[in-house]
Amino acid sequence: MKLNRTLLACTLALAALNPALAQTTEGHPDWPGAGQLFAGTCYQPVDRSLEQVRRDVALMKQSGFKVVRMGDLSWDYFEPAEGKFEFKHFDAVMNEMQAAGIRVILDIPGLPAPMWLHQKYPGVDIVNQAGTRLAPAERYMDNIGDPDYRRLAVRMADTLTKRYAKHPALLAVGYDNEIGNGFMSYSEADRKRFVQWLKKRYGSVEALNKAWATQRWSRRVGNWDEVRLPYADGPGPAERYLDLRRFWSDLTIATLDDLEAVRRRNTPGKPVLSNYWDWSGRKGFDFLGSYRRHTTFGAMGFYAGDAVGGGWEATLIKGGMTTPTWFNEFAAGGGGSYGSRGWSRMWAHFVLLMGGQAALAWTFNSHLGGEEQALMGLIDHDDRPSWKLGEWARIAADYAKLEKRGFPRSVEPKVAIAYSFENTAAYSANGPSNTSRQYLKTPYLKQALGAFEPLLKDNVDVAVIKLSYEDLSRYRLIIVPGLYLLDEASTEALRRFVADGGTAIMTAQSAKVNDNNQWHATPLPGGLTDVFGLRTNEFYDAAGTFKIGDEEVKGTIEHFEVLEPSTAEVLSHFSDLDGRPPALTVNRFGKGRAYYLATPAQPQIMRPLLRQLYASVGIEPGPKTPDGVFARAVSGRVLYVNTNNAPVDIAIDGAMQGVLGGQHWDKTLSLEARGVELLEQRN
């Protein structure tokens, strides 16, 4: 223990000097690290009697659960009136968990704020863009930029973490369930905070006018008092909309910084396991550009509808972290939690392929009232165990078998997909509803998934990263799929990556606007024409046919860019478009290669291109699997997950033993619908 404490002190000291080390978790005495998997549940004891709690905990223990997540969404349970804290009931719950050997993720309940806080401090109320003050009618209708909110949220966090810092059941701390969701606010106080943010960013009204292109259409700002909050729900110039999203992102990160300071002070030996929602359409925030400041494990709520979408979100929340990922909300029985047998078990193994370490069912008890009455949990409304509890007990048993066999798996991807929170905002203003052009009808996420899908189906590990925030030397191939806004720092990072020997693929609609969301006045792609050995300005609404190697491909998105190569070699031409313009080029730059694809990224186009590049960039695809089946090799074994709603036969090498099912397989593995299996060599 003395060694652990010394290591912890060194880790925290280094982290204070270098935020990039903040995610290091080996210094935590209770780090849930290598060789451990966790199955558990989210638990909200706010309306459970102590007798009911004891029955619940007994069922959790019987099911093999190792961990629960508690505290979220419960501010007024702990603080029913300002400054009046009540912990007697939760003390008893924590003690019951400890007696059962179940560890606790304590989620700081900064959202939603209690009604008493809204009543006394109306600045916490949301004001909509029409100027109407809104009552907190649903979760997350709290203005997190309000000083009273921030002050009282910090006090709540400080009081709670001090109370349970030394409790033996405490495993980790989380912040503000689903932070990133919520609402922007338009009060006069918000406007003034926005102005202060702009002053810090731009320094002068003259610089602001340039950044916002106010010379266009009589929108010049004469002084700071003339600045208004841009509308999130249009209309509004693109530059201002982007800054609005940046402003609220920075406020969210500042809230996380507040809470992280409390954790470092009160529970420095406990890692952070927050349930982030950085891609929420309401606000979102720049998680991939800030996570080293406030987290040690990527963590999220997992409600997959399909493998590509679920895999993307699981990869997005991991970023460039080397620590395993926690899925600390997990739909208990299906996409809507109404009942799909085998659904949870299938996805609980799928996330292990992505580097996951834990799956926690949402939720243990079905809610009798509130906003999720029909989102059924592991215990039915009449307090009887559902069939779902049995399925989660099976997940716990599976995890117990797997954790000694190379899990959680270490994920060290050599392929990265470039992502930026700012880019998702850059696409939104003045379109696509306000334009008929296809150019703005293919937003970044659609292209990102088009690049991600073939990699996922080839069972290749991928990182989703912000280019300017990571050490790009870890990767051999970086894909820039329709990154409309490629900021200056990311542009330079990509340039260095290629010059140093990396391979990059850029697709149509990339690098068109600068940091202020204004089109580059220089040849496109902005700042990278020499790297890609071409320029592109024109684009047309048409989908053409071309070849990648010997395979003929055609997109279904009617858009292509006219490429004007200089030093780039044309690898393929459109065969059915006037003039047979270039479809794919490659340029040697420094020690590396830069490919430019004249079409948006789509799976049927990216798949043959990637497969052609794997060998040359030193990337080996994973096990070959039928469509809808995913697999990874782990410590000489292979984990297979069938996401199909029908049985599938999979070709395997020789005779193998099933770890989970106990069956012997020779040359063919037969998986039932939503079936999973870990194969190893027979003894």
Automatic annotation (TrEMBL):
<feature type="domain" description="Glycoside hydrolase family 42 N-terminal">
    <location>
        <begin position="42"/>
        <end position="383"/>
    </location>
</feature>
<dbReference type="InterPro" id="IPR013529">
    <property type="entry name" value="Glyco_hydro_42_N"/>
</dbReference>
<comment type="similarity">
    <text>Belongs to the glycosyl hydrolase 42 family.</text>
</comment>
<dbReference type="Pfam" id="PF02449">
    <property type="entry name" value="Glyco_hydro_42"/>
</dbReference>
<dbReference type="GO" id="GO:0046872">
    <property type="term" value="F:metal ion binding"/>
</dbReference>
<dbReference type="InterPro" id="IPR013738">
    <property type="entry name" value="Beta_galactosidase_Trimer"/>
</dbReference>
<dbReference type="GO" id="GO:0004565">
    <property type="term" value="F:beta-galactosidase activity"/>
</dbReference>
<keyword id="KW-0326">Glycosidase</keyword>
<dbReference type="InterPro" id="IPR029062">
    <property type="entry name" value="Class_I_gatase-like"/>
</dbReference>
<dbReference type="Pfam" id="PF08532">
    <property type="entry name" value="Glyco_hydro_42M"/>
</dbReference>
<feature type="signal peptide">
    <location>
        <begin position="1"/>
        <end position="22"/>
    </location>
</feature>
<keyword id="KW-0378">Hydrolase</keyword>
<dbReference type="InterPro" id="IPR017853">
    <property type="entry name" value="GH"/>
</dbReference>
<keyword id="KW-0732">Signal</keyword>
<dbReference type="InterPro" id="IPR003476">
    <property type="entry name" value="Glyco_hydro_42"/>
</dbReference>
<feature type="domain" description="Beta-galactosidase trimerisation">
    <location>
        <begin position="414"/>
        <end position="619"/>
    </location>
</feature>
<dbReference type="GO" id="GO:0009341">
    <property type="term" value="C:beta-galactosidase complex"/>
</dbReference>
<dbReference type="GO" id="GO:0005975">
    <property type="term" value="P:carbohydrate metabolic process"/>
</dbReference>
<keyword id="KW-0479">Metal-binding</keyword>
<protein>
    <recommendedName>
        <fullName>beta-galactosidase</fullName>
        <ecNumber>3.2.1.23</ecNumber>
    </recommendedName>
</protein>
<keyword id="KW-0862">Zinc</keyword>
